[in-house]
Amino acid sequence: MTATIKRLLAYLLVQPWLFITGLVFLFLQTSLGVSQTLLIKQIIDQVLVPLGQRHVYYQDKFIHLLLLIGLTAIGIMVFRFIAMYSLQVLSNKIAKKMRDQMFERMNQLPMAYFDQHASGSLVSRLTNDVEEIRRQFYVAGLAMLLMNVVMVLGTYLMLFHLSQEVCLAMLVLLPIVVIWQGLYTKKMSPIQIKVQEQRSDLTSQMNESLQNVEIVQAFGMQDDLIKKFMTASQQLMQWQLKGLRLETWASYTLSKLMIYVTQVALVAFIALGFLQGKEAVTAGLLYALVEGTSRVLEPLGMVVRIVGSVQRSLAAGQRIFQFLDENIEDEVEDDLSIQDGKIDIKNLDFAYKNEHYILKDFCLEVGAHETIAIVGETGSGKSTLMNLLFRFYDPNAGEILIDGQNIFQASRAALRKGMAIVLQEPYIFSGTILSNITLDDPTITEEMAQEALEKVGAWKWISQLEMGIHQPVVDKGEEFSSGQRQLLSFARALVRNPKILILDEATSHVDSETEGLIQEAMAILKENRTTLIIAHRLLTVQDADQIIVLSQGKIVEKGQHKDLLEAKGFYHQMYLDQANSFLLE
User: Fold this and answer.
1) Alpha carbon of 14 to those of 98, 107, 126: distances in Å?
2) What's 47's domain CATH number?
3) 405-406 and 357-366 beta bridge pairing
4) C-alpha span between 329 and 306 (Å, rounded)
5) How confident is the model over 404-439, as pLDDT tens digits?
6) How far apart are alpha carbons 19 and 413 in whole angstroms?
7) How do residues 151-196 score in pLDDT, each as one tens digit?
8) What's phi and psi for 382, nearest 5 deg?
9) In terms of domains, do 492 and 465 share one?
10) Which of 86, 471, 500, 525 is geometrically suited to a Cys-Cys bond with 22, CB 3.0 to 4.6 A?
11) Do residue 312 and residue 412 come from a single domain?
């Protein structure tokens, strides 16, 4: 917890002048509050008491003091506004910095991290946890704590000036507050951590349901998911109520009890002194002492509630810093330039986890400008090979050379600059068709994007849209067919003129007409380019220079389509199975 607090406090240096401004005006606000109490004391002693006892009315003094009280009230409001506004602005700037850091870290994490963590949990940290810290630590926690500490110190100095005996007697209450606060913190900390975990679980469930709404409805999963969500929501509410009961009982009971006991003790102390012949306390002084003790004790009680807010934020802070401390992908400075696109894979071993190897001692040579098709049953290692080639993952052993250069000794950015990939599931970003092709790369012009769209056969339907290439795209491009989305993804890759082009099941979600357009474009795109095609449908790879057949992470056959059919091996059987399935359809 201490380490988390230190890291959160370090964010105050984002704009320290805002913090200093807030602190200064909190001090000024407190000073005016103390002055206001002393002014009211003077009105009681110098105006109201003489008026009641001797019927003497000091009008000028009353108006003067009343005017000063009014001015201090205005000053308190203005200074409080400036102080709280400065601290609120600071909290928002800190939240922005946290979100920026987390988003940057998210884009630096290795692919393996996302395999092990639910996307909903990551979204929850980036949004809910950051907002929790902003509200509970920097606003409800730090800002309110500073305001109350300054108020306690300022009022305590006033009490010391008015009555040193009362001031010293109040020091007895400090050990009670410390012990009370320690017990509260010990009980509240695990509750707040549990609340954050339950919130994250709810966010993950909502995110999962939204991303898979078609599957949910198609398989009638609504009732089960609603029941699961309501159970998790009920658990969250129970933990929140448990924390609320503890906070309410601890804060309000402590503050009210201390105020009542102290004020009774104060009156008894003054009365006892009067009976013993000591100087009588004026009505104004009595008011100032009672008001002062309330101003000291109420903030002490509020400290419990403030610590409750801090506890909630610390649970969120731990989750955020745990994320920010995740190891990012190691990068090297060495550059890599792909000229011909010759690929040489040597003795490659790879396992996603433990010792369950997807690829073992895998070797493959791909000549420059060749078109290689990689086929095999599900789980044979086809997509894994592409993930390694693109360095989404690094292998356990072995090396991959491109034009004689070891890709694991070069930066990922340099490697990927000369490559392009089209995945099985096309993703379309919010924006326009043009921005989806260029991905905001300033080196890609609108003319280049249009040329790529023409090559893949997409320009025909894009040119008929109301705004053409500038047509807005929203909600993952759901207004387009799956085939049209895949063509956009295909053009996105082609416009970069890669030396190595990878198609990972790129035609699996397109209709026969669209697939024909892609095949026609491929004949042109193969020129001066190394192309690797991962395919399930063998009809799409018959013209490949070489077909690699994988099974359990090993090459079991390789050759051209005609030769593999004549061999009547693994590939031949796959071809027959697909042909029979096609006839049955």
Assistant:
1) 11, 23, 19
2) 1.20.1560.10
3) unpaired
4) 39
5) 999 988 888 888 888 988 887 778 888 899 998 998
6) 40
7) 778 877 887 777 777 677 666 666 666 676 667 767 777 787 788 7
8) -60, -55
9) yes
10) 86
11) no
